[in-house]
Amino acid sequence: MKKLLKLTLALLSVFTAFTSCNNSEKKSGALAGNVAEKVYVAPGQHDEFYAFISGGFSGQLSVYGLPSGRLFKVIPVFSQDPEKAYGYNEETKPMLNTSHGFVPWDDAHHPDISQTAGVIDGRWVFINGNNTPRIAKIDLSTFETTEIIEIPNSAGNHSSSFVTENTEYVVAGTRFSVPIPQKDMPIKDYKGNFKGSLSFISVDKEHGNMDIKFQIIMPGFDYDLSHPGRGKSHGWFFFTTYNTEEASTLLEVNASQNDKDFIAAVNWKKIEEYVNNGGGTMMPANYAHNVYDETTHTATSTMKKEVRIVNPLDVPGAVYLLPTPKSPHGCDVDPTGEYIVGNGKLSANLTVHSFTKMLKAIENKKFAGDAYGIPILNFEDVLAGSVVQPGLGPLHTEFDGKGNAYTTFFISSEVVKWKLGTWEVLDRQPCYYSVGHLMIPGGNSAKPFGKYVVAMNKITKDRYLPTGPEVTQSAQLYDISGDKMELLLDFPTIGEPHYAAGCPADLIKPRSKKIFNLKDNKHPYAAKSEAETKVVRNGNIVHVNMTMIRSHFSPDNIEGIKVGDKVYFHVTNLEQDYDVPHGISMIGANTSELLIMPGQTETFLWEPKQVGVWPFYCTDFCSALHQEMQGYVRVSASNASTPLKWSLGEDIE
Predict the structure, then answer these.
(1) What residue stretch is flagged as signal peptide (predicted)?
(2) Using one digit for the tens of pLDDT, what is the confidence trace for 137-191?
């Protein structure tokens, strides 16, 4: 009887606990199970959004799916990538040329997607190299970097690479002011002698080709971030500044003396008209313009020797300064183009400027003075309103298209939702930890897709398994479709993410290139069939025109190579359907593998140092007979008389 009573009590306890759990789930609404459903993408199904997240010090751009948080691809941009041979193969090495020589790294911060009529069009992504000032363009039909332009007269290319609402221009604003032109001078003479530059890079409407149209030479402040006007403010661009004190040392103290710094409002339409009528001055410069040709599969690097500069004082009405609480970081414009949010990192309040009030103040010439001849507007005359004490350490703001704004607060580690126009705080959610940028897909456009916000955090500490002295960087996904934000997901990221750009997958998926016709391959060493393969010697230079197809190389045996030769392997992938790449690696090659896409030709250099018979093989799994996809190169002594021979499917006589 006692055993039966104990069993009954045990069953009752289990039932009570189970019922309690069910009741708790009903009461609490979205517990882990329901949240998981919101980010779950079933096998074979696609994510709703693409997110292009900067890699920061990795120099690359990563592609994630939302809401799953899955990493799909790392697009090499400013840094060498051994997985894809970018910056290693002979075809892409020129992409990393600069006026400082071959620079195979940069600090990639702010991606932005091309727009038409203020709406994201999904054609290209632009991203900045912060260290050696550069702007890159990625073609979203192939997800490959196709152009990089170096920015002269610049240092710390930070307030970049944001686009105007019809992608007329992508901007590149200097972070550090420097002597323009560069010269040897005492650093203590910074004030009044160093200058900043704001570069406007034109973008060809059809092909996206970039060219520096003009540079505005500005006072020697630090130019931090920027965003374009849109709608009513289209034709203007806005840049935050700090260090208006023009200090050159101990900036954490000396650049925080002034009560207010500025947002620089630039009427680029007015300057464009001035330049089109012959205005500005051509200045000697030295900068690289690197372009990847998608028919030859080869990049070329051209050193350009001049750039057009504009003194804003020569274009009255083109540039004004809006006082903004000290040390502003983010500079964000709402979808209507009316509100310009300046986030003063050291301010207790969020300051929002009015474009309409700005125009009225300019019309009435209500100025508080000038900085090096550039008019300063009165703070009160351009103020739309303030969000009072919303958090600590405001950085960046994005918009959901429903009249709401979302701002990150670095010190209090949170995202705060507030209402445009009334300036009231509506909601707040913690981030883990020290959030920097945030992104709403389309948040930097006239038409945001206000379903999710992605917060990019600088610190993660206890969110993931420990991985040594540095824990992975982290992004967090919030659902913002309702009145209250809801944390859905943490996911690790590549490098230190700064900004991100996002858009619906349906904008890009239909344009993704699927067939790569061999007839379109214009590479000078392409072998478009096995009949065209050959090995040619010219002195100690040897060119191998090779093909690859599931599951062999042609040729797969080569003899007559000598120690001291320079052997260029030009390898063509004869596959034409997307997602059938092949790889090749050669023992002793002082480079990475080649990962060759369908229909493409790539080249690597091999300089044999030892006699022997050395293998090469396919590095990318391609078929059931992938392991059998291999070959040999016989290397003889430098003075040997071994004849040059090659074959496929037969022994070399």
Answers:
(1) 1-19
(2) 999 999 999 999 999 999 999 999 999 999 999 999 999 999 999 999 999 999 9
- Which of 54, 289, 299, 285 lies closest to 161, judged by CA? 54
Burial of residue 367 (CB within 10 Å: 0-12, 13-18, 19+) is middle
CA distances from 106 to 78, 103, 438, 484, 587 (A): 5, 8, 22, 38, 29
Cα separation of 438 and 380, whole Å? 29
Look at residues 124, 98, 131, 126 and name the one whose alpha carbon lies nearest to residue 112: 126
Q: How far apart (Å, rounded) are the C-alpha atoms in residues 616 and 566?
A: 16
Phi, psi torsion values for 626, nearest 5 degrees: -55, -45
CA 403 to each of CA 400, 418, 446: distance values in angstroms, whole numbers, following the listed order? 7, 9, 12
Please give the Cα distance from 546 to 532 (Å, whole number): 8
Contact status, residue 324 vs residue 349, Cβ threshold 8 Å:
no
- DSSP for 471-496 reads PPEEEEEEE-SSSS-EEEEEEEESS-
The span from the CA of 396 to the CA of 435, in Å, is 10
Residue whose C-alpha is closest to residue 224's, from 244, 200, 240: 240
Decide if 163 contacts 126 (C-beta within 8 A): yes
Look at the block and give the residue holding tokens 């990639």. Answer: 108
pLDDT at 16 over 80: no
Indicate the length of the chain as a whole number: 653
**Cβ neighbours for 432, distance < 8 A, ≥ 6 positions apart:** 413, 457, 460, 461, 463, 474, 476, 490
The Cα diameter of the chain in Å comes to: 104
CA-based nearest residue to 251, from 345, 162, 323 = 345
pLDDT above 80: residue 547? yes
Beta bridge partners of 616: 586, 631
**Alpha-carbon span 239 to 159, nearest angstrom:** 7
The CA distance from 294 to 137, in Å, is 13
**Alpha carbons 355 and 338: distance in angstroms, whole number:** 5
Q: Check: CB of residue 160 under 8 Å from CB of residue 209.
A: no
Q: What DSSP state is assigned to residue 494?
A: S
Q: Which residues contact 441 (CB under 8 A, 6 or more apart)?
A: 49, 51, 66, 448, 449, 451, 452, 502, 503, 504
Number of Cβ atoms within 10 Å of the Cβ of 301: 17
Q: How far apart are CA 345 and CA 328, in angstroms?
A: 6
Q: Are 96 and 86 in contact (CB under 8 A)?
A: no
User: Which segments of 95-246 are extended strands (E)?
Assistant: 97-98, 101-102, 112-116, 119-129, 134-139, 144-150, 169-173, 196-203, 210-218, 222-228, 236-242
How far apart CA 122 and CA 568 sit, in angstroms, is: 37
Measured torsion, CA atoms of residues 267, 273, 274, 275, in degrees rounded to the nearest 10: 110
**What's the burial of 274, exposed, middle or buried (CB within 10 Å: 0-12/13-18/19+)?**
middle
Q: Which two tokens stand for residue 346?
A: 């050291």
Tens of pLDDT, residue by residue over 181-239, are 999 999 999 999 999 999 999 999 999 999 999 999 999 999 999 999 999 999 999 99
Peptide bond into 50 cis (omega under 30): no
Element (H, E) at 615: strand 612-617
Owner of token pair 């632009």? 126
Is 59 within 8 Å of 78 (Cβ atoms)?
yes
CA distance 138 to 144: 5
Q: Using the structure block, give the residue that is written with the tokens 């991606």.
A: 111
DSSP β-bridge partners for residue 320: 265
